[in-house]
């Protein structure tokens, strides 16, 4: 089957009556899972897979990928409206989404976020399609040395995020790295920092930590200050006003198409790298958006670019991750692993054979991602109104209810009470960090990348010896990292000397 | 003056005191972790140590900087003031944190639903002074929502609590 | 005399038929008990994995032959131990069963790993679904096409493995030790899929794995099987030496074969379905019967073929013996295994 035949066949199959209903239901399913705090793409896949045993391949793919595609969109919705990240990928949206809501621009933020998600996903899917002939070579490109240096590069983006307050951000990032060390060491099976607890031997789960740092901390803040979620808005926006804002937001995303494309490219590229997960991509995109913005000061206070960047990236990640999963049948992340098993259950084989003989199925996947995101955007628009009303409910009602849902979401991941405790502890820590201006984003990046950095470093050393760094590609990437870091440090000093120091003591 | 009746300077002083405590706490933990890491084999200890050395240096640098800027802030007084209940804001924060941990405790013993219901009820009624009608309505609605979505739609068994599990015949909790 | 004889006969007859009736009655009791009830089936891994797939494939047939509804619950964690412990400590009313990673649970128990709060030998087994056939594959780029190549090429080959104590690791280390293989085991890869990618990149030369996961690579020409652990090779494995063949050709062949047989006992435990200790006899018998019927149901066999999942049924009683054989090893062999699991070799 040639590429064009596959493309047309795939397209018509995606919109056919036997497939489209599953696509629709799957997208809704994913959206709802994304909205509920703590339930992530991994969870969506796990739930979706259980339904697959009775489906045809085409329908099954549509259901599975439709669900996967919209989780990040739903997560973006809650991140902006309730300051609680629905999934790990949406943590970066918390930096500028809630501030926009506070200013009364919730609709604008949501519209921009959803449109960026859609554009990002389309970009990722298209790249996937274009890469099909060379997928194998591209994925084989990333071995332990490359992943190590790339993870390190992502880590240096902390410098960009924490520009205003380097010391605090670096402390936060290093703490995050240290937290990633808790658990059983992959190499020698020694338990590190586990205090003898068996639960800790598995390490800290990502979802409770994110929920704690961002969602629970927000709840503590809300409870302590009273009022409602939308800080500066005493009354809710009218439905009409919200609708207008949503359309304006969508328009903004399309107007900033170049930024959206760049961030989508970042997302797709990072999705191709196995083992990094999707949260770093969003933060890297955020950092990039900030760096290239003409309005840097507004980042963190409600800049729409700070919402569009991460949202574009976190949906594009899926396209990239799917590419590496399809090329060999080797999953790049845990949700991809479940997706892969889903494909096996449907009787599909991935790898070169699928790419050669069943190209139309691959295109069904691609079109499912695009159409699924579109459905998610449209449905999401309808969800925004009722949900944004909730942001004006007073704290004394909101906090207990949201906390209960957050606690359940924290439990649902691994069926562990311990995770609820983790979320709460990190909530307290996150609140303190928020008050003291320590970057929680930096801690999160450190935490997420810590394990990837160490594991790949170890494997790289074992496989190639200490000179692995001098192989062409890792060397090139390392040089880029050093240059990038150097430039950022220099620009900080330059800004400091230029800036007139305000009355507040510099700390 | 803002809603707590404090001046900006006082608020800054409070924040400063908080940061001192936070930094001291973090510093202590990292030092303990440092000594813990020294007991591991080199292969396991290598990465944690590489992380902790710059971390400790940064903490020290930051602490020094804080100390230099602390002139006239009477940090110790702020800490004492806060600990002895002088700050309503802090009281609220500690209150909710404590109750959240209490939520975990109740869930462990009595199960998820009892925990959620009691948590919502206590928070809304006792701490926030909402009316009984509102409290019970919202608490019940939240519990039912969680039940419906998680147990029914997603088919996840929420934790039944040590007590119930014991009576069901489980030998491990 | 005749009367006593007749009387005895009559008495015996009555006794037998009552006993028979009793057994039949308790079988009937058990069937009645399970009719309409819900059996909780614990899977110690995430949905979509092999254990989950096997469970969901067999569940409808188990339901058919037991009359009860099967409710599959995923409980991932601690590499499968969390679920295994949950099964072990569940109420013993016969309403909770689960599938476990038998071989991994055995190695964890032997090595005394924290969290192994169960005794593999004490489970009430319903039976075994499959025992993965272990094969040793090399990558195309390593240039090794047979075991002779591996042994005689004078280079130390790199063998990839996932975690310490995992089956890929234990297989590599034990066979390497026993067969005196010139290899360096690099472990620390997250998943066996990552090891496979490393093989494709050329970072790693060989790995141990189950034949199921290796088949695709074999068929596409990326991988070559040079060794395996089967005593009676069939299909793709015909003509390829087994570890026993190699061992027999070496010094101390008999001892080596014995150690390898213990190793085989380890993998023979495979993927069993088990109930906690203490389940009443009649219910256990009923469950075992339902399991056997489900495993042999022609529709089930067909659907697992379509899903490309192998089957290797063993009954509950056989499983009990296999579990014992795997955990009751001779002291020297146990010492060897434990140090292998702990990474001390």
Give a structural overview:
- The complex is a heterotrimer of chains A (507), B (173) and C (345).
- By secondary structure, chain A is an all-alpha fold.
- Helices cover 72% and strands 1% of the residues of chain A.
- Chain A contains 21 helices and two strands.
- Chain A has a two-stranded antiparallel sheet.
- In chain A, strand 1 (183-184) and strand 2 form a beta hairpin.
- Helix content of chain B is 80%, strand content 0%.
- Chain B is an all-alpha fold.
- The longest helix of chain B is centred in the N-terminal third of the chain and has 31 residues, at 8-38.
- Chain C is 50% helix and 16% strand.
- Chain C has a six-stranded mixed β-sheet, with helices on both faces. Chain C has a five-stranded mixed β-sheet with strand order 7-6-8-5-9.
- In chain C, helix 1 crosses helix 11, helix 6 packs antiparallel against helix 10 (253-268) and helix 6 packs across helix 14.
- The interface between A and B is large, with 55 and 64 residues.
Which regions of chain A are unreliable across 5 or more consecutive residues at pLDDT < 50?
A: 500-507
For the secondary structure, the number of strands of chain A is 2
Largest sheet of chain A: 2 strands, antiparallel
| Distance, first to last CA of chain A | 64 Å
Category by helix and strand content of chain C: alpha/beta
Class inferred from helices and paired strands of chain A: mainly alpha
Kindly report the spatial arrangement of strands forming the biggest sheet of chain C.
Answer: 2-1-3-10-4-11
The fourth-level CATH homologous superfamily of the largest domain in chain C is Bordetella uptake gene, domain 1
Query: Which descriptor suits the 3D outline of chain C?
Result: globular
Helix content of chain C: 40-55%
The oligomerization state is heterotrimer
| CATH architecture field of the largest domain in chain C | 3-Layer(aba) Sandwich
Strand order of the largest sheet of chain A: 1-2
* Mean pLDDT over the residues of chain C: 84
| Low-pLDDT sequence parts of chain C | none
The succession of helices and strands of chain C, N to C, reads HEHEHEHEEHEHEHEHEHHEHHEHH
SS field, number of helical segments of chain A: 21
Order of helices and strands of chain A: HHHHHHHHHEEHHHHHHHHHHHH
Give the strand tally of chain C. Answer: 11
């Amino acid at each position: 089957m040639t590429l064009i035949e596959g493309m047309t066949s795939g397209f018509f199959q995606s919109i056919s009556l036997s497939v489209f209903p599953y696509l629709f239901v799957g997208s809704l399913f994913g959206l709802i899972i994304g909205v509920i705090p703590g339930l992530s793409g991994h969870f969506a896949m796990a739930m979706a897979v259980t339904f697959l045993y009775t489906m045809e391949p085409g329908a099954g793919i549509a259901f599975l990928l439709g669900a996967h595609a919209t989780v990040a969109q739903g997560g973006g919705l809650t991140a902006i409206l309730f300051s609680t990240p629905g999934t790990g990928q949406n943590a970066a949206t918390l930096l500028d989404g809630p501030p926009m809501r506070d200013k009364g621009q919730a609709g604008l933020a949501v519209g921009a976020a959803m449109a960026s998600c859609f554009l990002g996903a389309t970009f990722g899917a298209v790249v996937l399609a274009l890469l099909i002939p060379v997928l194998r070579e591209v994925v084989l490109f990333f071995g332990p040395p490359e992943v190590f240096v790339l993870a390190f590069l992502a880590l240096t983006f902390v410098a960009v995020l924490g520009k205003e307050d380097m010391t605090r951000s670096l402390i936060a990032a290093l703490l995050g790295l240290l937290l990633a060390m808790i658990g059983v060491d992959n190499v020698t099976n020694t338990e590190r920092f586990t205090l003898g607890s068996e639960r800790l031997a598995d390490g800290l789960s990502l979802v409770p930590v994110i929920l704690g740092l961002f969602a629970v901390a927000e709840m503590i803040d809300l409870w302590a200050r009273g009022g409602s979620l939308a800080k500066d808005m005493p009354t809710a926006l009218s439905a009409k006003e919200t609708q207008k804002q949503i359309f304006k937001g969508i328009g903004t995303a399309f107007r900033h198409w170049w930024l959206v494309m760049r961030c989508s490219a970042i997302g797709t590229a990072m999705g191709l790298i196995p083992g990094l997960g999707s949260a770093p991509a969003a933060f890297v995109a955020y950092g990039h958006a900030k760096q290239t913005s003409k309005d840097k000061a507004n980042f963190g206070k409600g800049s729409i670019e700070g919402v569009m960047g991460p949202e574009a990236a976190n949906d594009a990640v899926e396209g990239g991750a799917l590419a590496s999963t399809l090329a060999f049948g080797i999953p790049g992340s845990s949700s991809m692993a479940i997706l892969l098993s889903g494909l096996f259950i449907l009787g599909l084989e991935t790898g070169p054979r699928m790419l050669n003989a069943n190209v139309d199925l691959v295109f069904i996947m691609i079109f499912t991602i695009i159409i699924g995101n579109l459905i998610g955007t449209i449905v999401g628009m309808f969800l925004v109104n009722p949900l944004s009303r909730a942001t004006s409910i007073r704290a004394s009602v909101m906090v207990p209810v949201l906390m209960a849902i957050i606690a359940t979401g924290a439990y649902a991941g691994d069926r562990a009470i311990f995770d609820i405790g983790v979320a709460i502890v990190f909530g307290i820590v996150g609140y303190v960090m928020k008050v003291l201006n320590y970057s929680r984003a930096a801690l999160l990046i450190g935490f997420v990348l810590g394990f990837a950095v160490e594991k790949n470093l170890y494997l790289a050393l074992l496989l190639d010896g200490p000179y692995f760094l001098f192989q062409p590609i890792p060397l090139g990437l390392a040089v880029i990292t050093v240059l990038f870091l150097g430039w950022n440090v220099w620009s900080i000093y330059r800004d400091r000397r230029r800036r007139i120091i305000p009355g507040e003591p510099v700390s | 003056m803002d809603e707590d009746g404090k001046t900006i300077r006082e608020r800054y002083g409070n924040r400063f005191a908080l940061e001192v405590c936070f930094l001291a706490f973090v510093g202590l933990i990292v030092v303990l972790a440092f000594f813990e890491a020294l007991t591991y084999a080199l292969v396991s200890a290598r990465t944690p140590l590489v992380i902790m050395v710059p971390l400790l240096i940064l903490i020290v640098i930051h602490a020094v900087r804080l100390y230099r800027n602390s002139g006239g802030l009477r940090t110790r007084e702020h800490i004492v003031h806060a600990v002895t209940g002088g700050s309503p804001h802090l009281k609220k924060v500690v209150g909710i944190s404590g109750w959240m941990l209490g939520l975990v405790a109740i869930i462990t013993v009595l199960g998820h639903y009892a925990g959620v219901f009691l948590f919502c009820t206590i928070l809304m009624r006792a701490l926030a002074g909402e009316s009984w009608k509102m409290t019970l309505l919202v608490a019940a609605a939240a519990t039912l929502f969680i039940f419906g979505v998680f147990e029914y739609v997603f088919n996840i068994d929420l934790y039944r609590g040590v007590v119930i599990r014991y009576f069901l015949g489980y030998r491990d909790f | 005399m005749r009367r006593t004889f007749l009387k005895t006969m009559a008495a015996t007859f009555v006794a037998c038929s009552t006993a028979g009736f009793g057994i039949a009655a308790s079988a009937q009791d058990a069937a009645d008990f399970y009719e309409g009830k819900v059996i909780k089936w614990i899977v110690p891994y995430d949905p979509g994995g092999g254990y989950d797939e096997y469970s969901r494939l067999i569940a409808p047939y188990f339901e058919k032959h037991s009359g009860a509804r099967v409710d599959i619950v995923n409980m991932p964690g601690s590499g499968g131990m969390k679920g295994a412990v949950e099964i072990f400590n569940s109420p013993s009313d016969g309403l909770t069963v689960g599938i476990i990673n038998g071989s991994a649970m055995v190695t964890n128990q032997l090595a005394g790993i924290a969290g192994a709060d169960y005794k593999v030998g004490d489970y009430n087994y319903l039976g075994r679904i499959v025992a993965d056939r272990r094969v040793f594959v090399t990558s195309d780029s390593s240039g090794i096409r047979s075991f002779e190549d591996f042994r005689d090429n004078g280079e130390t080959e790199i063998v990839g493995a996932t975690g310490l104590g995992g089956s890929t690791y234990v297989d590599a280390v034990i066979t390497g030790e026993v067969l005196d293989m010139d290899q360096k085991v690099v472990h620390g890869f997250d998943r066996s899929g990552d090891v496979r990618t490393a093989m494709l990149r050329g970072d790693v030369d060989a790995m141990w794995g189950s034949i199921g996961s290796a088949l695709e690579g074999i068929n596409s020409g990326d991988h070559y099987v040079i060794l395996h652990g089967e005593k009676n090779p069939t299909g793709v494995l015909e003509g390829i030496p087994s570890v026993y063949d190699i061992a027999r050709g070496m010094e101390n062949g008999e001892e080596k074969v014995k150690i390898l047989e213990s190793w085989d006992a380890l993998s023979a435990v495979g993927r069993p379905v088990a109930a906690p200790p203490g389940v009443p006899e009649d219910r256990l018998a009923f469950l075992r019967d339902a399991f056997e019927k489900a495993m042999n149901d022609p529709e089930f066999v067909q659907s697992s073929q379509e899903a490309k999942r192998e089957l290797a049924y063993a009954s509950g009683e056989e499983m009990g013996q296999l579990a014992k054989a795997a955990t009751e090893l001779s002291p020297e062999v146990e010492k060897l295994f434990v140090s292998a699991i702990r990474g001390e070799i």
